Amino acid sequence: MASGTALIYDEEMTTHKLLWSDPVCDIEVPERLSASYEQLKRYHLVERCVHVPAREGSEEEILLVHRSETYSDHLEVAKSTQTMNEEELKRVSGNYDAFFFHPNTYRCARLAVGATLQLEDAVMSGKVRNGMALVRPPGHHSQRNAANGFCLFNNVAIAAEYAKLKYGLQRILIVDWDVHHGQGTQYIFAEDPSVLYFSWHRYEHQKFWPSLKESDYDAVGLGKGKGFNINLPWNKVGMGNPDYLSAFFHVLLPMAFEFDPELVLVSSGYDSGIGDPEGQMNATPEVFAHLTHFLMQLANGKLCVILEGGYHLKSLSESVCMTVKTLLGDPVPQITGEMAPCLSAVESIQNVRAAHKAYWKWLMYEDESKITNNHETVKVERFLELHMKNILFPVPPIKTATTDSNSSAHLLPVPVHLVKEMDKNEIKALVSGFYGDLVKEDKTLLSLGSMLAILDKILKKEVCNGIAESPTTSVSVAVALRHSLRFGFQRVLCIFVGDMQIIPNTEDGKILMIHICEKEHFSLLLKDAEGNDFFSAVLGFILPVAYSYQPDLTVIAVGPNRSLGINGISLLFALLQGLAESRIFAVIENTEINLMQSVAKALVGASTPHFGMYVSPTQEKVNTIKMLRDQFQQEWKMLQCSGKLSN
């Protein structure tokens, strides 16, 4: 299995620069690259990445996308700019919308293409698992026959065509989280069902550049490509972390899992982050860690992140670092602040769902219908300085732990660390003092030594996550929950998978329980989330509720008679690692080794297993999720982007 994260950076791409004054183009500066790279060095991330050298993209590779007769003429013009003086460069640049030439622009643009393809080759060949390319000029506005919006060649579009040609890929997902619409990418793949293109962008009802009707939610693609172009327009500035996460939960992720891509490419513009003069949005850097984490669960982890925009250097560089840390497998920082999307975001998301209902199985039974800030740089710099100190945390030295008493320990992945179980006398004293009402049998008492030893390591932040075997899962979990609250944790999310007796929670408000099972008498319950009903349950309900709750710890208990398969359980563990600084405690009732191994792989950060061919969810299950959303959306605001809005 591939491991490692590639980083591609070539200082020569900083030589592309504006030689005259232009208020439109003067924000596209070389420091965008150098500041990002320097911040990566300060966080000691460069030394942890696999260095992959950039190269120039060939003309043949560029012409995979820019192959029209008109563009060939333009290609000759681009070449000719290498020997032009400033006046000539200024005149040629004036032929394009928001673009400038420097004598080295053509060379830098070829390096940007080549760096993108080098990253893709490294990922597809298995040299690395994922990676990021820091490139200039960016690419997503570039069309087949025209430079546009700081972009000369469409780096990501070329990468998609290259992957189809060289590796025979049939399903490629492009996620464009830049604040501008990547209209160039949309035009290139409008009729191509092999490329699913998702873009969110500042739109303001067509008032914001590029001010195109086809940037709205109802532009779903053309011909065979209908349904494969997803535009999510932001119709006001100030969108923040909950708005971005809601877009993933209620639009992108369900579509992506149904599409089942073989490769994910990200047009990674950070002008959608806080402080950017172009975007004027409020999303903080750590949200990009969460978005990256979710995309890592697709395509067996094959993820290539390609830099696009980002014009506030502090916001840009911190967001780049958050992305790379996540690609490297570091725990994801917690999102702070109220988790509730704004009404404008809800409207946009519901309009996208309505526009795409005819094309996607997961929307088949959903009731969707259409619904008809000024950032000061100095303040943002200071805010980000303090904010990053608050959200960044020491990564525990050990990722995943279990104990010797786990009968399957020797069969688990090598990175799983063995900890010594708690002394029997110590367990007895602890149980008699605090948990006597929960523990009645000696065999349960003995199993607690293993469970509490791992949990203590997690609570003390010596270990990121852990996995314990138990003969009586419900009792072990009840003890674990009470132990966590005694330690001082205020919000614990507990998810039960399978049939087990749940011991009532007496700490009102400090524990949120969700039960995935066959029975129907628990307050927060998802019945029979098997097969692809899993995605309706997890993406449409569990993740939005969990992100609304923002737990300090996640406990997942797996018992007998599970309606959820091994791959589904593993993916559930992987998706929930975005919460609680990735603190997850797995308690699994003595069961088959395959489940223990699969969960352990998810916890250590291995690529999640393929979920299998997508089958549309049943109407009964979709209706169950809709009823739950309607019931709980006032309490858990992240549910409000799907289903009916309560008054």
Automatic annotation (TrEMBL):
Keyword Hydrolase: yes
Domain Histone deacetylase: from-to ranges: 28-327
GO cellular component: nucleus
Top-level taxonomic group: Eukaryota
Keyword check for Nucleus: yes
Keywords: Hydrolase, Nucleus
A molecular function (GO) term: hydrolase activity
Family matches, as Pfam families: Hist_deacetyl
Main localization category: nucleus
Coiled coil: none
CDD domains: HDAC10
Subcellular localization(s) per the UniProt record: Nucleus
BP-aspect Gene Ontology terms: epigenetic regulation of gene expression
UniProt similarity note: Belongs to the histone deacetylase family. HD type 2 subfamily.
UniProt cross-references to PANTHER family, sorted A to Z: HISTONE DEACETYLASE HDAC1-RELATED, POLYAMINE DEACETYLASE HDAC10
Name of the featured protein: HDA10 deacetylase
Organism the protein comes from: Hemiprocne comata
